[in-house]
Design goal:
There is one protein chain. The chain is α+β, with helices and mostly antiparallel strands. The chain has 3 helices and 7 strands, in the order ααβββββαββ. The protein has 2 domains: about 35 residues; about 120 residues, no CATH class. About 25% of the residues lie in helices and about 20% in strands. Strands 1, 2, 3, 4, 5, 6 and 7 form a 7-stranded antiparallel beta sheet that branches.
Amino acid sequence: MTQLFRSKTLANLSLALALAALPLAMSACAAAALPAIGAQAAQGVVAVAGYSAIQVGQSKADRHTPGGLDDQEERCDALVGATPGVAEVRKTKEDVIEAREWKLVDPGKPHWVIVRTKTGSENGWESKPRITKLQFTPPLAEQLDYKKSQFVAYAPNNLDNIDDSRTMTSVTEAFGDPFGTFQFHGKTYGYTMVGQLPCFPVEKD
């Protein structure tokens, strides 16, 4: 699968915490109660700080998948067992598409790494002029710009095959609903595009 985008080996197949301040009116006769009020206020500060920490923790837990956070971890775990093909693509000012493959490694501590090839550059990028022959619908080049790359996640549109069905489920649950297709050797693949890889850390270039 991860070899679909290799030009020479196409046949060998990739959301602030709003705080409300409550005014506190103290009269002179209530001054004796100041220590108790101070203790309660301190407890309130602790509670607010704790809630803020929870909110921050939730934000950090976002693994950039579609949907809510409640079942995100399960969906990411499933991605390890059924990883789709993933290619990072970009377009040069000459409208030539370049791509590099990514894969998940180390099931115990999954992370994304670049698939480096003999024909690619040191950081994995290769020119892919023949990628247009895969009949992307909508056309791939029209979805790219010159300033940033995108990640294409793809899997066969074959729900009759258990492995293919699981892989397409991983595309949907980790990357988002497929919005296009392409053809390869008479087989139809569904694909979607995202701005960053989901679920796991990414190897640096």
